[in-house]
Design brief:
With about 60 residues, the protein is an all-alpha fold. The protein has a domain of about 45 residues. Helix content is about 45%, strand content about 0%. It is globular.
């Protein structure tokens, strides 16, 4: 499979309650990443979302046992 095209990335931060942070963490784990979660929610709301955000590369750390 050819590598995905490079896209310019920016970091987004905001303050939230602990309960909201826990909810975002849980939903993000289910969807694979916070970026994917937000992109999918925006797409469901009718916004045009770049494919790179709907299916970002998996950059989670993995450790061998």
């Amino acid at each position: 499979m050819p590598p995905a095209p490079k896209v310019e990335l920016v970091q987004i931060n905001f303050r939230a309650s602990k309960d909201l942070a826990k909810l975002i963490a849980r939903l993000s784990a289910e969807r694979g990443s916070t970026r994917r979660l937000v992109a999918q929610l925006l797409q469901l709301d009718g916004h045009e979302v770049p494919a790179a955000d709907l299916n970002p590369p998996d950059t989670r750390r993995r450790y061998d046992d």
